[in-house]
Fold this sequence. Notes:
The radius of gyration is 14 Å and the shape is globular. The protein has a two-stranded antiparallel sheet with strand order 1-2. It is built from five helices and two strands, in the order ααβααβα. By secondary structure, the chain is mainly α. It has one domain.
Amino acid sequence: MFNSKEELDNLFGNDEGVASMVIALCATMYDNGIRVIHIGGLMRMLGVPNKDAQKHDHECFELGDHFYEQIEEMGFEKLEEHALHLNVNDTVH
């Protein structure tokens, strides 16, 4: 796991939107029992071109048992499950 927001920024750039997407993807994988995150694969999920992501295919990190506490210490907020669902009557454009 990244030990700080700075480590996250060093790999993915200093962009709050990208950092939030990285954390959201890691949280989804964590919640589904995936604890070892392949960095090249994560980069591809974010739309990084394959030729750039390949440079990180040999790297991975592990999400620890206290993943949510760690990301909260970095300044990210954990959203409750109900906040992630749209009302069936809402129209999304």
